[in-house]
Amino acid sequence: NQRAMWFAIEIAAYASLVLGYLLLILLAIRHRIGRGPAQRLLELTLLLAVIWTAALGLLAISTPGGWWSFVWHRVAELGLVVLALLTAEFASIFVQSSCRQTSFRPWPRRVAVIVLSVAAIALDNLPAHWQSLFSNPLLSQLGPTELGTWFLVLAWLISMGSAWWAGLKAMHGATISKHRNRIRYLYAALVGFTVGDMLIFVGGVPDVYVGLVARLLGFGIITFTLLRYDLPDIRRFGLATLRLVLLVGVTVFIYLVALWGGVLLANLFPDIPRLAVAVPFASLALVLAATVDVLVSPRLHRFLDRTIMGRYYDVQKALRAY
Prior knowledge:
Layout: H1 2-30, H2 37-60, H3 66-97, H4 107-124, H5 144-173, H6 177-202, H7 207-227, H8 234-268, H9 274-309, H10 315-321
Helix pairs in contact: 1-2, 1-7, 2-3, 2-7, 3-5, 3-6, 4-5, 5-6, 6-7, 8-9
């Protein structure tokens, strides 16, 4: 029963990921107005991501064993390298078309990634008489499989590093706020790709599934960025999210402290009915939480505006004065 339940969870997880990628492909295909190289590359990358995710799902639900586990990890690593290379190509095209920035030549990156990937595949199929080279004490802890994995990790680092460098170079040269905002969306997607890929490289459950979801979210950000011309200010959205998280955290903390105080008081005085202690303390916790929300929220808003946005004035106060 446990095996059947785990089997159903794996099928549902990979099917959901594939459906998510298919939805992004449909969104990208529907918006064909002004379709350029970046959108065509995005559609190709999403299609490859669908095939890669489906292949991982089929391998995951196959008969478990050492060989299948090795094949799953190698397919995952090769797919990450291909997607990272396409991400680097997309970042270069994106900063050129959307932000009017130039990028460095892509050929060294492509050659290095292809050579490292071919070397990793060759090590997986190394003849038996060549494997004796790894009996050397210096290589005793590093077999052909491990060396191939390190080659693929290096190829992934080259590709993702190129994508980040393209974004950083574009942000350094961008002078228009709209262009800088679009580059920040690229940053957000690259964060999702980088964190997700690292979790997949590490392997294990639930790290792999979290990594696959993070990569899907990264593609979602890229699709949203590419299909919309006027993008919301991502810093404003991030500040609003951060302010909400901090307020909820402080409110929950105060509420839990008040409840803990009520439980402690009830334990110290067991003769008092628990309901007589719980109701006043719960009411006090709600009042304190509401007070914190009213008093802390505007001050937290101004603090984040000063420290992150660099604004040293209150918009609402300025409007009232005007």
